[in-house]
Amino acid sequence: MKNKFNIVIWEGCAPIVTEAIQQFEQRWQPYSVSSRRYPIVRLIEEVIDPAVASYMDTLPSSYAGHVPGAGTGLGFSAIIRIVGLEAMVRMQRQLLRQFIKTVKQETSTDERFIATLESLMGLVWDCACKRPKRSSSTTGVNLNTQRKHDFCELCGNQAEFAAFMTTVSDQRINDVELEDHKKLGLSNQYCTEHRPKLANGDWNPSYRQAKRAQSQFNTELARLIHQCANRSKPHAMSGDKLVDSYFFQLMLRLTLQPADKAELRNLARRMVDSKLSDTKKKMLVLKQSGFNQTEIGLQLLNSRQQPMTRQAVSKALAAVRKDFLL
Ligand SMILES: [Zn+2]
After folding, report:
1. Rounded Cα gap, residues 257 and 126, in angstroms
2. 317 — phi, psi (to 5°)?
3. Report field, pTM of the whole predicted structure over 0.85
4. Angle value at C-alpha 141, between 139 and 145, nearest 5 degrees
5. Alpha-carbon gap, residue 246 to 138, rounded angstroms
6. Ligand 1 centroid vs 252 CA: distance in angstroms?
7. Cα–ligand 1 centroid distance for 156 (angstroms)
8. pLDDT tens string for the chain (326 positions)?
């Protein structure tokens, strides 16, 4: 089966690295972390290391301190061999954040540096997520296995039928069991948590609640995806500067990539379920900028179009889930 995602190359990425990533993607099909014959780190060494080295040669030496290994003469792949793919992404993210906070100026060199590192981080992350190519196993199942990656419409879980198909190909359920499962009326659209009806035939409250807020879920998801694909500046396209700034800052501390579709969907779900409204997002940004609760209240309007009281701000902020704080 063909790989579903492509490595995202950022606008403004250095041409030599862009070319290397494209070449990498053309060749990476058989490679994976666990393959002995096709270890993915070897492909990184062959294709990515030389490109990164050439690119770094074009920059003043101070930039090397913000790329793992570059200052020490070790290649990109050598560091990955030492720390692993996931730690590499974390390390790189931290170095990049430091660069943005302390060094970055509005020059095209700096913008290019950020776009290049973001693209490389995406590549490393995609490598970490890449599963070995599986031999097509005979499962004795005639159902359409193409559907097995389909998401629940309301979150990042697989829809019930898709989840069941994954079990089938993993465990080779026999035909009798398959018939039983088909009778359960598995949902093509929703996961178990969000299926419309419960096993006893009653309406499922989680479904109804999530369904009522479906457009908000779609809105938050779109904002997260926009910001995720363009991390170096506010890009959520919400139409409000403070809300955009919230997504910008939130995404800076997460290592999510556009390919992390399930995680992004789950994040949007949690945002809606925990009632993180746009007003709360604005409060968090203003708080982060150093305003106190009274000052925050004066800048925001309540539902009656009046400035909010300090108490209302305090109450709203106290209700924000920890993982959504800035
Ligand atoms: Zn769901």
Report:
1. 8
2. -65, -35
3. no
4. 95
5. 48
6. 26
7. 6
8. 333 446 778 888 999 999 999 999 989 888 888 778 888 999 999 999 999 999 999 999 888 888 887 777 788 898 888 888 878 888 888 888 888 888 878 888 998 999 899 889 889 988 877 766 544 433 333 344 434 457 888 999 988 877 776 666 555 555 555 555 555 667 778 888 998 888 788 899 999 999 999 899 999 999 998 898 888 899 999 999 999 999 999 999 898 888 788 899 999 999 999 999 999 999 999 999 999 999 999 999 888 889 999 999 999 999 999 999 99
Residue 84 CA to ligand 1 centre (angstroms)? 32
Distance 259 CA to ligand 1 centre (A): 19
Helix (H, G, I), strand (E, B) or coil at 37: coil
CA of 264 to the centre of ligand 1 (A): 13
Question: Which residues touch 106 (CB under 8 Å, ≥6 apart)?
Answer: none
Q: Would the CA dihedral through 64, 70, 76, 79 be positive or negative? A: negative
93 C-alpha to center of ligand 1: Å? Answer: 30
Distance 162 CA to ligand 1 centre (A): 12
Q: Taking Cα atoms as reference points, which of 222, 220, 234, 232 lies closest to residue 285?
A: 234
Q: From the CA of 168, how far away is ligand 1's center (Å)?
A: 20
Q: Determine the distance separating the centroid of ligand 1 and the alpha carbon of 101, expressed in angstroms.
A: 37
- Tell me the residue type at 181: H
| 300 vs 287: CA distance, rounded Å | 12
Residue 189 Cα to ligand 1 middle (Å):
9
| 326 Cα: distance to centroid of ligand 1 (angstroms) | 27
How far, in Å, from the CA of 159 to the mean position of ligand 1? 7
Query: CA-CA-CA-CA torsion for 80, 72, 231, 94, nearest 10 degrees?
Result: 80
Please report which helix (H) or strand (E) contains residue 280, including its range.
Answer: helix 278-288
